[in-house]
């Protein structure tokens, strides 16, 4: 309980959610919206409690009308398996929701209407979140897997592109199948805005990833990566090849001749403390 209580104190309800609940009262759809809200709450608490158990720095849990957002102070340097567990902990809540709904219906505790509504909304929230679109669980899980195979910056750019393509296909499907459904348009609108914001802030996302490493928050080192760089390459270009869960050794060369080696801590210090990001990497081999 000591682990769960801090999570509960960080729950925030988005103003749009309050607005829709109020509209639900006026349009006699309050029960449906309340059921959807309860499912979203369980889903987000699954993420948040898992993150809390791993010791993540949770900032807030915001509940939106058709989903939620767990905001943490972690920026890509947690072990990849931790991130996947936290991401999976949301969708896993839908299993016990389904079983409990069936049990309550079997013993006559809930009506046919509540039963069918819970089953429907449970699957809707689950399948929406599994879509390979940022910032949904499916999109974030795909990003974690991509960032294991390629540098962090490249993986982040790629997931935004994949998300954009997936969202475009979803938009075509919506127009073709159910163009007048305002609920789905709200979901699509939220995803478009979130994806645009992620693209706009992509450099800040990368900087936070690097700064966490600079301040020593990358505790889980799984491999050593050797990066070769010509002495005239700018320092910031080397940083673009940094990977999660890796410790980097930079081999500075002059054509085929090896001039020396640099630890990633030296390169990060030069970038963030000495403000030398746009200087040639070769200068770090000499006093400056």
What does this structure look like?
By secondary structure, the protein is an alpha/beta fold. It has 3 domains: 130 residues, no CATH class; 83 residues; 65 residues, CBS-domain, CATH 3.10.580. The protein is built from 12 helices and 6 strands. A 3-stranded mixed β-sheet has the order 1-2-3. A hairpin with a 2-residue loop joins β5 and β6. α5 runs antiparallel to α6, α7 runs antiparallel to α8 and α8 packs antiparallel against α9. The protein is elongated and about 75 Å long.
Brief summary of the model shown:
The chain has 288 residues and is an alpha/beta fold.
List keywords for this structure.
three-stranded mixed sheet, 58% helix, alpha/beta, 6 strands, 3 domains, 12 helices, CBS-domain, 288 residues
**What is the average of the pLDDT values?**
86
Unreliable spans are none
Shape: elongated
Number of domains: 3
Helix content: 55-70%
Secondary structure tally: strands: 6
Structural class: alpha/beta
Main β-sheet description: 3 strands, mixed
The helix/strand series, from N terminus to C terminus, equals HEHHEEHHHHHHHEHEEH
Report strand %: 5-15%
Cα Rg: 23 Å
The number of helical elements comes to 12
Q: Give me the side-by-side strand order of the main sheet.
A: 1-2-3
């Amino acid at each position: 309980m000591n682990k769960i209580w801090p999570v509960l104190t960080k729950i925030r309800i988005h103003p749009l959610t309050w607005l829709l609940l109020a509209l639900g009262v006026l349009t006699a759809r309050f029960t449906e919206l309340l059921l959807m809200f309860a499912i979203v709450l369980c889903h987000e608490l699954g993420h948040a409690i898992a993150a809390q158990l791993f010791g993540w720095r949770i900032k807030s849990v915001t509940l939106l009308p058709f989903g939620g957002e767990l905001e943490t102070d972690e920026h890509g340097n947690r072990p990849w398996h931790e991130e996947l567990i936290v991401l999976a902990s949301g969708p896993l809540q839908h299993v016990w929701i389904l079983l409990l709904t069936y049990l309550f219906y079997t013993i006559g505790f809930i009506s046919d209407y509540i039963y069918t509504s819970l089953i429907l909304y449970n699957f809707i929230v689950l399948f929406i979140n599994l879509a390979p679109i940022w910032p949904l669980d499916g999109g974030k899980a795909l990003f974690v897997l991509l960032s294991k195979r390629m540098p962090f910056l490249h993986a982040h750019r790629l997931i935004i592109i994949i998300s954009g393509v997936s969202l475009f296909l979803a938009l075509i499907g919506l127009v073709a199948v159910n163009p007048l459904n305002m609920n789905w348009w709200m979901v699509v609108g939220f995803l478009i805005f979130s994806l645009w914001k992620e693209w706009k802030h992509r450099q800040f996302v990368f900087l936070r990833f690097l700064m966490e490493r600079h301040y020593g928050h990358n505790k889980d080192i799984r491999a050593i990566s050797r990066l070769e760089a010509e002495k005239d390459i700018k320092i910031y270009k080397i940083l673009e090849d940094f990977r999660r869960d890796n410790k980097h050794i930079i081999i500075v060369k002059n054509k085929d001749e090896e001039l020396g080696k640099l630890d990633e801590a030296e390169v990060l210090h030069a970038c963030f403390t000495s403000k030398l990001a746009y200087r040639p990497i070769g200068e770090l081999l000499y006093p400056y």
